[in-house]
Amino acid sequence: MQLRNYINVVICAGVVLLAPLSQARNHNLPEFTDLIEKNSPAVVKINTVERSRSRNRIQVPPGQNIPDIFRYLFEPRNQPERNVHSMGSGFVISADGYVLTNNHVIDGADEIVVRLIDRREFTAEVVGRDERSDLALLKIEADDLPTLKFAEPDELRVGEWVLAIGSPFGLDYSASVGIVSAIGRSIPTDRQENYVPFIQTDVAINPGNSGGPLFNLDGEVVGINSQIYTRSGGSIGLSFAIPISVAKQVVSQLKDKGRVDRGWLGVVIQEVDRDLASSFGLKKPMGALIAELRPGGPADRAGLKVGDVIVKFDKTRIQASSELPHVVGASKPGEEVPVTVMREGKRRVIDVEVGTLGGDDEEPIAQAGVSGDRLGVVVNNVDERMKDSWQIAGGVLVEQVEPDSPASRAGLRPGDVIAQLAFKDIDDLATYNEVQAELPTNELLPIRFFRQGRPAFRTIMIKE
């Protein structure tokens, strides 16, 4: 009896202890039911159809005698059209029928059908699309539609709860939740452009979710689900959304003119590593190093130079080179912006009028005149045809690189064209010989070169 009473006391005590813990959990976790019920009607499913074009079969080649038994194979015939179906998500942003989605959801589509939660379907017209941000604005003929509200830009914080609604794998109006894992992720496109500072989340996003909204706990749209990292085709907890700050700018311009104009500097940039930072007089790796200037571009006209490190654009500090396209693209074309650069170890501020960004490698050919030097390379003058092909003014062509030489440790290869050494332009072989002869020893120095027409910066050190 005493043992039984003891057990009862322990069990009761367990109930007493567990109840507050359960209540605490319920109190701390967000409640999503009202958010989903209120906002789901404005989320849409998008079905697209792309029709393949009919093609003629191969015809008998002129002058060829084909045996009769095989001639039918070469008779002109039309292959039947084959429709390619695809799907995605989107959401209504105005009661008169404007719908926002991803560009890749409707890219190449011949027919776009928007389906509402009440099962009504509308054929949509493309108002405009923007490949650089992967956004598209559609219009359907409907009135009094439920809409979603955009959140205020730049208020999202890492760790916030977020919720996605969409149609993964064709499943209508599925909801998934998670947190914001990071902000400002840079993911270059296939064209190596980078104008979107993506929101990274661990929300379960799968094929079909693309174009759907990402909500905060207030039911406001903070992003548009766009991409995932995956090895299997499904979610592994790495999803990316276009921030609402980008979407607002894109939607406004697509409504007004059907296209998106962005700020443009006219520079090719690269990351600054520890060695480059030391050679440029920076205390730590930061900024965007100008590896090339577009002739006549905004940066060129303002007086920026190759080798400048942009550390601040207007009021925004540039910690990594990937951040520069984000802030430049978001700037207004035509406005004058102060740009802070590090040039040969000194900080300078240069005013730049922002421009407008609208919507085969040749084998090196050398001339006579070989030279061996302290860098451990054999160089030559650059042929005029190569200059024209690569659009370079001068430099020297690297023909040989000695093993374990300063040039080898810097990563130079035969075929590279050295254009600058220690901030000094290399026009030809004579200039190069003068510059390399005066280079200091045991000091990291910047070297700029072209590889297959693309500029790059490295550091080089000549040891005693």
What does this protein structure show overall?
This protein has 464 residues and is an alpha+beta fold. The protein folds into four domains: 93 residues, Trypsin-like serine proteases (Thrombin, subunit H, Beta Barrel); 97 residues, Trypsin-like serine proteases (Thrombin, subunit H); 95 residues, Pdz3 Domain, CATH 2.30.42.10; 90 residues, PDZ domain (Pdz3 Domain). It contains eleven helices and 28 strands. The strands form five sheets. The chain has a seven-stranded antiparallel β-sheet with strand order 5-4-1-2-3-7-6. It is elongated and about 80 Å long. The N terminus is likely disordered.
Question: What's this entry about, in short?
Answer:
This protein is an alpha+beta fold and 464 residues long. It has helices at 2-28, 33-39, 68-71, 103-106, 244-257, 274-279, 298-302, 323-330, 384-390, 406-410, 429-437; strands spanning 43-51, 83-92, 98-102, 111-115, 121-123, 125-130, 135-139, 161-166, 174-186, 197-201, 213-215, 221-228, 239-243, 262-264, 267-271, 288-293, 309-313, 316-317, 336-343, 346-353, 355-357, 371-372, 377-381, 396-401, 417-421, 424-425, 445-451, 454-460.
CATH architecture of the largest domain: Beta Barrel
Estimate the global geometry from the Cα principal axes: elongated
The total strand number stands at 28
Strand order of the largest sheet: 5-4-1-2-3-7-6
Assign the CATH topology of the largest domain: Thrombin, subunit H
Decide which structural class fits the backbone.
Answer: alpha+beta
Largest sheet: 7 strands, antiparallel
Beta-strand content = 25-35%
The pLDDT mean sits at: 83
Name of the level-1 CATH class of the largest domain: Mainly Beta
End-to-end Cα distance = 91 Å
Number of helices: 11
The CATH fourth-level homologous superfamily of the largest domain? Trypsin-like serine proteases
Q: Portion of residues in helices?
A: 10-25%
Rg, rounded, reads 30 Å
**Which parts are unreliable, with pLDDT below 50 for 5 consecutive residues or more?**
1-25, 360-372
The tally of structural domains comes to: 4
